[in-house]
Fold this protein.
Amino acid sequence: MTLAVAAGVVAFGVLVGLLSALFGIGGGIAMVPFMVLLLDRSQHLAEGTSLLVIIPTAIAGVIAHHKRGYVSFEHGGILAIGGVFGAFIGAKIALSIDEEMLQTVFAIFLVLMGARVIHDGRKTAVREAAGSSEGSAT
Amino acid sequence: MSGLLGVGGGVVMVPLLVMAVGLTQHQAHATSLAAVVLMGAVGAATFGAEGEVDVPLAALLAAGSLFGAPLGARIMHRAAEGPLKVAFGVLMLVVAGMLLWT
């Protein structure tokens, strides 16, 4: 990896952090297509790498939220027990299907998430418009 | 789903925690992150066992992301969120199209 590419990757990481905070989406959904389309990595490698990135970023998130008392470790623990099992099975399935198939599955997930973000955005826009007209009335 | 798609899974867990357990949106988001840590570890280890993890690449992305997230949280309230979200959602659909095309 050249220095220029490395700098580009770090810059994209900053963007991922920004996006996940702004739009309430995880970083994986942005990082995986970035690695596949721009860095020419395989879908499998992109997903495995994305999961590794998620560990420190989620830890940072937990620390930030825990300070404000938002983290319920009891519920988090219960979720994790099921989640860990599911993550293992999911990864095994991903590793057993071919590149093209996995990419298609990911693209379908991206379409669903995109539709959700658009829906969210339209709702927010309506609320913002209502909020600003209320503001001018008072 | 997290393991299959290489993503966190908050998308599924947050609504579950809000609806089934009755946590607030904020609590649910924070709590799902705690589960994501362990799920990411298991998922990454499973992909890693097959050589499907690029550690240096992950380190660069994580470094940038750890810097960007607090920045995003700070400007979150200032941005006109609605139209921005719609634009981003459209971008996601375009990227999905590109993935299907290649």
Q: What stands out?
A: The longest helix of chain B spans residues 25-49.
